[in-house]
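Schema walkthrough. Field components (list of strings):
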Amino acid sequence: MASSLTATELEALACSPYKRDFPLLAAHPELAFLDSAATAQRPAAVLDAQRSFYETMNANPLRGLYRLSVEATQAIADARDHIARFIGALDDAGSPQGNAIVFTRNASEALNLLAHTLPQIVELGPDDEVVISIMEHHSNLIPWQQVCTATGAKLVYLRPDESFCITDAEIKAKIGPHAKIVSVTHVSNVLGVQNNIAAIAARAHEVGALCIADGAQSAPHVSVDIRALGCDFFAFSGHKLGGPLGIGVLWGRPELLDAMPPFLTGGEMIDAVTETDAIWSPVPQKFEAGTQDAAGAFATDACLTYLESLGMESVEQRERLLAAYLCERLQERDYITIVGPAEPTRHISAVSFDVAGIHPHDVASILDMDNVCIRAGHHCAQPLLTYLGWHSTCRASVAFYNDKTDIDRLMDGLDRVWGIFNGSR
Amino acid sequence: MEVASLYNAQFMDHVAHPDYKYELDDPTHEHDGINPSCGDELHLAVRVGDDGRIEEAAYTGHGCAVSMASADMMSDLMVGKTPEEAIALCELFKNMITGDEKDMDKLEEELDEASMLKDVSHMPARVKCAELAWRTLAEMLKSNEAGATTTE
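Field assembly_structure (string):
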């Protein structure tokens, strides 16, 4: 097998030293889990932290005046600071902008928060434009469709060229003087490509628009530095990083978060309430109505500590090699078409593909029999698939805990699928 | 193991050489079915004759092998049935793939070839695929019984 990977690189991918850190993977060595773009597996460090929170510091954060509640409150504050450092959200003095970290249920809720509150401070109208890309996940697409329907603003799509790249020319052409909000995914969950958020944010600011980056697929796989990206908001989900399900993060520029109205209202987000009015708490509490998932925040904190113990750069490096190996192996089969860039090194975790004449659901079902887990369908990116001329695709996605064997098993499974449909079982 | 037995030669024949995947001439009923979880789309058409029985059923669309083979087997089964009998068979099929009806003799007798899809009852992720054509047919015939137009 010809590979652009060196012998040393292949050797490093041969057997994952990380699976033992993940109880589900350790208990199921027969499993080739290649669907981390949907949700990652959780390391023991996260599960232990979740349990430890409930065993040692369980109380309602923010309001209690006893020590347990104070500890729970501190756990959330520490998690905010850690997350801020993780994405490079530091102030001029180099301190983490913990108070610019808003907890949500997931990236979708973070994006919905923006879609509900930003139009009130930028005053969108029929002469204005909201710019997204055609490769958005539905969670960064439908909220803006709704905004445009409600305000009369026009929804404009950035479209990739034949090599799946949103070019500088496209950015300049589509983000024009009428643009008020630009919201683009950092990494595509279908194509695996990384978009040039720095160039998009720079252009957005040049025309006076705000720029949002959807980091759901980038935060788990790429070292994020929001200062280098230059965006005004960055949203991601904890569970795609290996944190618990049900917690998401929105970072925003402090002055913008201050200016925005609240999204959900109720307990824990007010300073004072009268019969007719309420005074909002400062950011981030203003955006966090109701009791927060303190255990989830604590476990997310532990997840970042685990990832940092491995080093995000080595995580990124290993995942690049795994994705490149995956892409190259798929390219060996003439019955497989890659839906995305041909260059193996341009894939961040995910590689979408089509098996000639076989519906992706059948592919995934038959692979499941071999304990190979992949995603099949439109990947919550139906406009992208329609634009590219597909109804659905198969998608395999890797994380650092995968190894060469997982991908080799996918290939054996795909040969079996091909055999079943082409009469050579 | 269910997967291997499902994708057998007889099943694959319906996938590779469908008998009823075409545009029907002069349909009396037409209806679209979609499976939102995977984007499968099915356009189903039947022609009910003067004797009140289904003369011909056919479908077009795109979807996985399970949804397409299921539509093919269903179209074959429905010829000669009254709408009431067809609705009852759709109900029986649904009960088979949800595992609520396990009497194989009854299933084989009434559903004929389509009874081979019983293995889908062990594959929860594929129930919606197998069910698509049957659900679409039942919806179409039921709404027609209620006097509504079924052509979309």
